[in-house]
């Protein structure tokens, strides 16, 4: 029996495992880096062990430190979660050699399935169809191909290549990213299937020869080869195809002597032909949708199997309704969706019925690695949380999830929330017409929720009124009416920097505080604070102030009430409404002159470490040439020459830590 379990992971999956362990009476040990010392999972575990350092290679990828932590904390078992060392056979063997229980498949199985090329040969011999694969990139015979990391998953170390001239750079980049994320830079190439669906089957096997499939998951909505929306059952899979997929998954598991929870992934073509991709020998990020529809706790079953128990059923359990999961990432929609860092001032998902674990009735489940006040740093994956909706039908589950995300209050860092909502509400997604190229085929889903001019204008007005109410509350003249004047005067004005540009709000109140006129107009940032024409407030829409406090503004717009919650942190106002959210930064009325950025100046796109520098001062480059790379959040970000010219100054070297906006190099254009 397992008495005390060390969770060899961090963030959301660590919290998820701890919840189940607490429910079944197993004590838990957390491990944490310097950056994770105050993370929620550390406080929720019964014991915690510090791993000195921050980067994954000096902390969570150090198997020797993890085994030592288990010994020091008196743990008798180790659960690897997902990512990091979860699919490292050497780590699994080290755990067993230390006399500990390994909550996962046997090390030899991990090694076999971890080598995706070897795994494909094994399952092909078992009669499961596989795609053409080239272990040596020099042997690639046709395009397009997908360069893939042999170890790990989650979209790391993957590159789509459509032309032979681009293969070498893609392979080199994928190797570096895989080495950073998994400690193994081995990659291979695989034929890329156009308009394919990514469908996987969850299986669980015990040490007594029982292998059970738990249905399929549709994981075709992907960006950068990483899943962002998953669901079960798939809207494409009929009973006949489901039986074939599940049978192939069970055959794969039996062929390798699998024990524990695992996932067999397939690529499915429009004509229902399917091909084996890989087997993930661990718990998947998207496992909650299966838990809700099947009515099980997969972590609990993992513990049961690790203790030598027998599965409680011999065949696939019936499915109950439909579940959809969306992954929330800290990303900047206005800057090429690069990962974002910062402090979460607020993290609230209204309507979430449960955090982690199974649910008895349909509703919303939140699996989060963060809470309000958490700091999102540069060292790890930018995923904040997963929100899962479970309902009797797919349409209900999708609608419920989209509405909950739209009403979420996430302040402090940018996220992909609007993208998720747009996808879930897109007619093609609602109809189940999707594939792995969905986002490329529907670029309209990248528009922000607050894309209409009227919605943004009302948010700006609400932020201005909330700011006025806040200043009035702290003023010694608070007893006077807000709009008190003894003669007509110019309207009040305030300028905000929004994701879509700079906007100036002008409004006028009467002696009772009623709105007598207002307007919001787009301006150039350099014009803020400069003398100009008085804004024309005539012809403004029929808007009345119902109430205005520092935290909430209610407006009546042509007889319809709109409520805006305003959370101000410093100069930033986070405005939330039923339409969505927007971040507005108030600009000073009389801004101080700042240093001008010289033409050709190249700055860091986000905080991170400079992983490569490919140029030297005095070197001539062409537009589009790769100059250097910055690594952050387990991804490699390239900095290319915006134009042809000469590198006249180089401010960094490989290994340097840089902040967002830091000067990297200066390129003098031709």
Describe this structure in words.
By secondary structure, this protein is α+β, with helices and mostly antiparallel strands. Helices cover 24% and strands 33% of the residues. It contains 15 helices and 40 strands. It has a nine-stranded mixed sheet with strand order 14-13-10-11-12-15-23-21-20, with helices on both faces. An eight-stranded antiparallel sheet has the order 27-26-25-32-31-30-29-28, with helices on one face. Strand 2, helix 2 and strand 3 form a beta-alpha-beta unit. Helix 4 (89-97) runs antiparallel to helix 5 (107-114). The longest helix is centred in the last third of the chain and has 21 residues, at 453-473. The protein is globular, with a radius of gyration of 27 Å. The termini are far apart. The model has no long low-confidence stretch (mean pLDDT 91). Residues 107-307 form the ATP-grasp domain. Keywords: ATP-binding, Biotin, Ligase, Nucleotide-binding. Residues 1-444 form the Biotin carboxylation domain. This is Acetyl/propionyl-CoA carboxylase subuit alpha. Its cofactor is biotin.
Write the layout of secondary structure elements.
Blueprint: E1 4-7, H1 11-24, E2 27-32, H2 40-44, E3 47-50, H3 63-73, E4 77-79, H4 89-97, E5 101-102, H5 107-114, H6 116-125, E6 133-134, E7 145-149, E8 159-161, H7 167-182, E9 187-191, E10 197-205, E11 211-223, E12 226-232, H8 239-256, E13 260-268, E14 274-280, H9 287-294, H10 298-306, E15 322-329, E16 331-332, E17 338-339, E18 342-343, E19 346-348, E20 352-355, E21 363-368, E22 375-376, E23 383-391, H11 394-406, E24 409-411, H12 417-425, H13 427-430, H14 438-441, H15 453-473, E25 492-498, E26 501-509, E27 515-523, E28 543-548, E29 552-557, E30 560-569, E31 572-577, E32 580-586, E33 601-603, E34 608-613, E35 620-621, E36 626-632, E37 635-640, E38 645-650, E39 657-658, E40 663-669
Parallel strand pairs: 1-2, 1-4, 2-3, 4-5, 20-21
Antiparallel strand pairs: 6-9, 7-8, 7-9, 10-11, 10-13, 11-12, 12-15, 13-14, 15-23, 16-17, 18-22, 19-24, 21-23, 25-26, 25-32, 26-27, 28-29, 29-30, 30-31, 31-32, 33-40, 34-36, 34-39, 35-38, 36-37, 38-40
Helix pairs in contact: 4-5, 11-12
Domain ATP-grasp: 107-307
Pfam families: Biotin_carb_C, Biotin_carb_N, Biotin_lipoyl, BT_MCC_alpha, CPSase_L_D2
Domain Lipoyl-binding: 593-668
């Amino acid at each position: 029996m397992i008495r005390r379990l060390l969770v060899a992971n961090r963030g959301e999956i660590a919290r998820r495992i701890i919840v189940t362990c607490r429910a079944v009476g197993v004590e838990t040990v957390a491990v944490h880096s310097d950056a994770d010392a105050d993370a929620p999972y550390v406080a929720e575990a019964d014991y915690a062990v510090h791993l000195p350092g921050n980067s994954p290679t000096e902390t969570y990828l150090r198997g020797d430190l993890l085994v030592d932590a288990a010994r020091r904390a008196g743990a008798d078992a180790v659960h690897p979660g997902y990512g990091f060392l979860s699919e490292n056979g050497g780590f699994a063997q080290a755990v067993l050699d230390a006399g500990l229980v390994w909550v996962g498949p046997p090390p030899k199985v991990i090694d076999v399935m971890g080598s995706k090329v070897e795994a494909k040969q094994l399952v092909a011999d078992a009669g499961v169809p596989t795609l053409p694969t080239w272990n040596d990139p020099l042997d690639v015979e046709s395009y397009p191909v997908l360069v893939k990391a042999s170890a790990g998953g989650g979209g790391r170390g993957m590159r789509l290549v459509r032309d032979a001239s681009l293969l070498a750079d893609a392979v080199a980049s994928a190797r570096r990213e895989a080495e950073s994320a998994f400690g193994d830079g081995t990659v291979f190439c695989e034929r890329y299937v156009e308009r394919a669906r990514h469908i996987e089957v969850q299986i669980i096997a015990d040490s007594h020869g029982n292998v059970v499939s738990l249905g399929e998951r549709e994981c075709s909505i992907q960006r950068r080869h990483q899943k962002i929306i998953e669901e079960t059952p798939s809207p494409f899979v009929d009973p006949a195809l489901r039986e074939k997929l599940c049978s192939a998954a069970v055959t794969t598991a039996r062929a390798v002597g699998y024990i524990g929870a695992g996932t067999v992934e397939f690529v499915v073509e429009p004509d229902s032909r399917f091909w084996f991709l890989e087997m993930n020998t661990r718990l998947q990020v998207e496992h909650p949708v299966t838990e809700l529809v099947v009515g099980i706790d997969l972590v609990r079953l993992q513990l049961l199997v690790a203790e030598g128990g027998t599965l409680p059923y011999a065949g696939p359990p019936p499915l109950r309704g439909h579940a959809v999961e969306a992954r929330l990432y800290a990303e900047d929609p206005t800057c090429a969706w690069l990962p974002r860092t910062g402090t979460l001032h607020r993290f609230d998902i209204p309507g979430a019925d449960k955090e982690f674990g199974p649910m008895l009735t349909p509703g919303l489940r939140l699996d989060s690695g963060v809470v309000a006040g958490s700091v999102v740093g540069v060292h790890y994956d930018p995923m904040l949380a997963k929100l899962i909706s479970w309902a009797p039908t797919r349409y209900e589950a999708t609608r419920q999830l989209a509405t909950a995300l739209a009403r979420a209050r996430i302040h402090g860092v940018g996220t992909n929330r609007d993208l998720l909502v747009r996808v879930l509400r897109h007619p093609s997604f609602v109809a189940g017409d999707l594939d792995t190229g969905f986002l490329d085929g529907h670029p309209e889903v990248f528009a922000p929720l607050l894309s209409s001019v009227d919605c943004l204008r009302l948010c700006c007005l609400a932020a201005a009124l909330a700011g006025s109410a806040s200043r009035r509350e702290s003023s010694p003249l608070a007893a006077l009416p807000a709009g008190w004047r003894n003669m007509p005067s110019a309207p009040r004005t305030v300028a905000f920097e929004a994701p879509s540009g700079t906007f100036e709000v002008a409004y006028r109140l009467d002696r009772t505080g009623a709105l007598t006129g207002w307007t919001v107009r787009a301006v150039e940032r350099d014009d803020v604070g400069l003398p100009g024409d008085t804004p024309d407030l005539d012809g403004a829409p029929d808007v009345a102030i119902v109430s205005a406090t520092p935290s909430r503004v209610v407006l009546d717009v042509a007889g319809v009430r709109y409520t805006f919650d305003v959370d101000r942190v410093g100069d930033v106002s986070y405005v939330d409404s039923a339409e969505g959210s927007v971040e507005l930064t108030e600009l000073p009325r009389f801004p101080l002159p700042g240093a001008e950025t010289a033409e050709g100046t190249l700055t860091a796109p986000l905080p991170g470490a400079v992983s490569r520098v490919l140029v030297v001062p005095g070197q001539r480059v062409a537009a589009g040439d790769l100059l250097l790379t910055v690594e952050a959040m387990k991804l490699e970000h390239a900095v290319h020459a915006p134009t042809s010219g000469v590198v006249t100054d180089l401010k960094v070297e490989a290994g340097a830590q840089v902040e967002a906006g830091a000067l990297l190099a200066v390129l003098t254009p031709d």
